[in-house]
Design goal:
Blueprint (H helix, E strand, L loop, with lengths): L3 E5 L11 H13 L3 E6 L8 E2 L4 E2 L6 H8 L5 E2 L10 E4 L3 H7 L2 H4 L7 H12 L4 E4 L3 H7 L4 E2 L15 H8 L3 E2 L8 E3 L4 E4 L8 H18 L1
Parallel strand pairs: 1-2, 1-6, 2-5, 6-7, 7-11, 8-9
Antiparallel strand pairs: 3-4, 10-11
Organism: Anthoscopus minutus (Southern penduline-tit)
Protein name: GAL3A protein
Length: about 220
């Protein structure tokens, strides 16, 4: 019987929601791993809406759950309804929506607050000793909620211009967590906390390398589940 995995989204689109390629990659690897997946998102208003063609703010409002339903092909539930007892693991793809809608990292950095249902979900899986997978910017959720944990967002220096957001590693360290430097096609496993992370689009890399890195994260999550 396949593992039961909850996938938590933050909208639809890299600049104000979930990164579409990361969400799709996670779903493909979960499918290949024989997992049974259910998708969730918080039923809240987005912090902002970005015109992805122009890269500028749009004067409109959108709902995180409604927008996430685009990625889920309509088959999605309110995150408030997620019960950790029904799943073996949880995975959070990245995208600016994580830093805007699931928490306030985009505005407040390490002083951010985490959405109550995101926080309770993370706490519940951690308490039950069930694995948590995070990619791209979403490892900051673990860094904020679980002081002392180990995560990766890639490198802590902008190596060859490929890691423009390398300062995120320093902010993670300031939260009392350990940042582990990894390449884009790798993931890090914090065995003590059952937290698996990979940098994905925190690195400027070809899409297939990001896809492969997310694959290692999913595989490690399924091993721990």
């Amino acid at each position: 019987m396949g593992k039961r995995v909850a996938l938590v989204l933050a909208g639809c689109g890299v600049f104000d929601g979930s990164e579409i390629h990361e969400a799709s990659a996670a779903l493909v690897h979960l499918s290949r791993g024989g997992a049974e997946v259910k998708i969730f998102a918080p039923n809240i208003e987005q912090r902002d809406v970005i015109n992805h063609l122009k890269g500028s703010p749009a004067e409109e409002k959108r709902n995180v759950l409604v927008e996430s339903a685009r990625l889920a092909r309509g088959n999605i539930q309110d995150l408030a309804e997620l019960k950790d007892s029904e799943f073996d693991a949880v995975i959070f793809p990245g995208g600016f929506g994580v830093a805007k809608n699931l928490c306030s990292w985009a505005v407040d950095g390490k002083n951010c607050t985490v959405n109550e249902h995101v926080n309770s979900t993370l706490q519940a899986f951690h308490r039950a000793k069930k694995p948590i997978g995070l990619c791209c910017i979403s490892p900051v959720l673990a860094a904020k909620v679980f002081p002392g944990c180990e995560v990766t967002v890639g490198q802590d220096k902008n190596v060859d211009g490929r890691f423009p957001d390398a300062e995120t590693a320093s902010a993670i360290a300031e939260l009392g967590c350990k940042h582990i430097c990894k390449n884009v096609n790798e993931s890090h496993v914090d065995k003590a906390n059952k937290i698996v992370t990979t940098c994905a689009f925190m690195c400027k890399a070809p899409l297939h390398e990001i896809f492969d890195g997310i694959g290692t994260m999913v595989q490690e999550v399924l091993k721990l589940a």
